[in-house]
Amino acid sequence: MFAAVATCAVFSFLGFPDWAPLHLYLGDGGYPAAAALRLAAASTDRDAMAFGAAGLVAGFLRCQRQGEPVPSPADCAECDYRYLIVYRLGGTCPLRISAWGRELEGPGWKRRCGPMPMEAFLRRFHPCRPLKKPIPQEAWSA
Questions:
Q1: Chain segment 31-75, per-residue pLDDT in tens
Q2: Domain ranges for the chain
């Protein structure tokens, strides 16, 4: 029998209307496929959808009640992943995400993806979404 390995992550939301910057720590399920599941659930939360872009943050908080707000991602030194979700009204890509993973050797972070449109992140990492293009083999190491 194998033991489950917790992968903690911090999700940062910046630029969302009516929201101050929010950094939320989650103690497990931080790997990219789980992050995609969490973000997809938040984006389809029926109660939050009525609030436009700000609804993504509200939906995430509603769907991830176990999350703990933290003052800064730097306060989460033990995290395995970090996600930065940015909303920029009027930008060429108004909702985008970047992801970093902790390097195995040393205290640094390695960019895993992004910045990229949220929908592209969901297509790439969500385990149940159909992909428009096959993912290149080298991307599986991300």
A1: 899 999 999 888 887 776 667 778 889 889 988 888 899 998 887
A2: 9-132
**pTM of this prediction?**
0.81
The three-state DSSP-derived secondary structure of the chain is CCCCCCCCEEEEEECCCCCCCEEEEECCCCCHHHHHHHHHHHHCCCCCHHHCCHHHHHHHHHHCCCCEECCCHHHCCCCCEEEEEEECCCCCCCEEEEEEEECCCCCCEEEEEEEEEHHHHHHHHCCCCCCCCCCCHHHHHC
- Measuring CA to CA, which residue among 74, 47, 81, 72 is closest to residue 61? 47
Rounded to whole angstroms, how far apart are CA atoms 77 and 86? 22
Residues 25 and 64: beta-carbon distance below 8 Å: no
